Amino acid sequence: MLSVREIEVRAGARLLIEPASFTVSSGDKIGLVGRNGAGKTTLMRIMAGEGLPAAGTVQRKGVIGYLPQDPRTGDLHVDVRSRILSARGLDQIMTRLERYGAAMASTVGAERDKAMAAYAKAETEFLAEGGYGAAAEASRIAANVGLPDRVMTQPLSTLSGGQRRRAELARILFLGADTLLLDEPTNHLDADSIVWLRSYLQGFPGGLVVISHDAALLGETVNKVFHLDATRCVIDQYHLGWAKYLEQRETDERRRKRERANAERKAAALMAQADSMRAKATKAVAAQNMERRAERLLEGVEAARTQEKVARLRFPEPSPCGKTPLSASGLSKSYGSLEVFFDVDLVIDRGSRVVVLGLNGAGKTTLLRLLARLDEADLGEVTDGHGLKLGYYAQEHETLDMSGTVLDNMMAAAEDLTPTEARTLLGSFLFTGDDVDKPARVLSGGEKTRLALARLVVSRANVLLLDEPTNNLDPASRAEILHAIDTYRGAIVLVTHDEGAVLALHPDRVLLLPDGTEDLWNPEYIEWVALA
Ligand SMILES: Nc1ncnc2c1ncn2[C@@H]1O[C@H](COP(=O)(O)OP(=O)(O)OP(=O)(O)O)[C@@H](O)[C@H]1O
Ligand SMILES: [Mg+2]
Q1: Which is the closest atom of ligand 1 to the Cα of 213?
Q2: How far apart are CA 361 and CA 23, in angstroms?
Q3: Interval between CA 444 and ligand 2 midpoint (Å)
Q4: pLDDT, tens digit (0-9, with 9 covering 90-100), for 513-525
Q5: How many angstroms separate the CA atoms of 215 and 212, rounded?
Q6: Alpha-carbon span 18 to 356, nearest angstrom
Q7: How many whole angstroms separate alpha carbon 381 and alpha carbon 329?
Q8: Which ligand approaches the C-alpha of residue 451 most closely?
Q9: 388: Cβ contacts below 8 Å, ≥ 6 apart
Q10: Which of 70, 106, 193, 387 is the most buried (most CB within 10 A)?
Q11: 163 lines ligand 1 (CB under 6 A)
Q12: Nearest to 153 by CA among 81, 97, 91
């Protein structure tokens, strides 16, 4: 159980949430929603005990399982199974069992007796913790979130960002928590895993708070919705399921809009009156008061206006290039003994649109990284065509310099950009005022995505490599990205689980991994997208 009393949330000096109270008890399934940068992640970190509120208290009872939005970077040498088992402290007992088991097999006499005794002791502890059943449960959960058995013995360092996040999710679910706090749990999951997660969360008997932009997940799992309104800095608590919430919220928004229109009308009337009174010296003070009242009325209206804006997004006009700006032949890549793909050829013509499909771990991100020259292929080569200008959008935002400010990141993206131009452009991506001086590290998930995309826009790239560009985005920002993809005139190589993004791309070809088979696009492939 979680009990939140009068907590006030700030980011630096900025107020995100005015004092708010609520509890999360068993059976509460709460969807926490709100636009990018509203403060959802910040609030959840505080609930999980990883951040402190500016005021107020959080009380926690029982075991809390928290999945952060960004994958943590812990010890990457441990293998996936140990990482998941560590949730219940089983990893160390498992390691001891394996060590003493091996010792029993390779020793004799007194040594062997000692190993046997140690083994028996470890096994007793193991059984007390749920033992073999628990280990099997861990494997089952892992398989359900898309981590097959062969991955279980790999160290975390060899996993893709998406796989690492799955391992974290599996670990949290294996924990057996009383309360689950999940920040965008469907990022990086394939369709099967998402369906499984939905039914898991439906049947979960404890308390749940989930941040998600996935309407289907919210529709099927939550019985309450907390809407974090970034304009008013309050949490609107709806004790309704998702569909009812949407209706109610629309009614509320309409009412607020009416109220805003009224405020504007009133303010205009006050101003007019103030103007007519200012002429008379005796009424000057009254006129000033009226003006101030009008300004106060308008303050709220303005804030609402700016908050409702979304980034108007357009990808760059591509700089000129030859007929085939990028091509690759015979690409092969392995991580240790695991072969990701073998002998893949790809030709990207000017303005062509390719979607890369393949099951999880089939190497989609790896392929883009090879094309972007961030990794070396084991065999084969990538060839630049005449005039190539690449723009790479990375799933994990690793193209951003996290210690640099928003403005630094922007300036680094194009050589001839002046600070003023950079600020103007950032403004159109909704980074205004002090926002541009924030270090990229503190940005919200959606803000990082916006910054990375803004960098692409100034680059005049003629080939864009896009890896899951719609993750983390609120619906309005997602719609903008889709529009930008739709209207961009250069070539795009797209990796995504988002069917809408593929439709916006109007692909002319697909590349199927790990085989590397190329095919002309046909609408039947859309079913593969969600599977990928
Ligand atoms: N240390 C900090 N200094 C300044 N601003 C910060 C700091 N930490 C967070 N912020 C800002 O606080 C706001 C809320 O961030 P948060 O990550 O909680 O948003 P969110 O609702 O989770 O958004 P998203 O949907 O994009 O994940 C953002 O505008 C972010 O840039
Ligand atoms: Mg967030």
Answers
A1: 25
A2: 39
A3: 5
A4: 888 888 999 988 8
A5: 8
A6: 45
A7: 6
A8: 1
A9: 321, 325, 326, 462, 463
A10: 193
A11: no
A12: 81
Nearest C-alpha neighbor of 468 from the set 408, 358, 394, 416: 394
Could you tell me if the CB of 12 is within 6 A of ligand 1? yes
Round to whole Å and give the CA distance between 407 and 443.
13
Cβ of residue 516 lying under 6 Å from some atom of ligand 1: no
Element (H, E) at 345: strand 338-348
- 372 backbone φψ class: left, alpha, beta (φ>0; ψ -120 to 50): alpha
Residue 448 CA: which ligand is closest?
A: 1
DSSP string, 271-337: HHHHHHHHTSGGGHHHHHHHHHHHHHHHHHHHHHHHHH------PPPPPP--S-SEEEEEEEEEETT
Ligand 2 centre and the CA of 64: distance in Å?
19
Cα of 99 to ligand 2 centre, how many Å? 42
Which bound ligand lies closest to the C-alpha atom of 447? 1
Beta strand pairing call for 64-67 and 326-335: unpaired
Residue 41 Cα to ligand 2 midpoint, Å, equals 4
Expressed in angstroms and rounded, the spacing between residue 456 Cα and the centre of ligand 2 is: 22
Query: What's the average pLDDT block by block, 10 residues per block, for the chain (532 residues)?
Result: 95 91 96 94 96 95 92 80 89 87 88 90 86 88 89 85 87 94 88 88 96 92 94 93 93 87 86 82 81 81 61 75 93 81 91 88 86 90 93 83 93 86 85 89 90 85 92 86 89 91 94 88 85 64
Q: How far apart are CA 218 and CA 201, in angstroms?
A: 10
DSSP 435: G
* Peptide linkage before 514 cis (omega within 30 of 0): yes
Cβ proximity of 230 and 14 under 8 Å: no
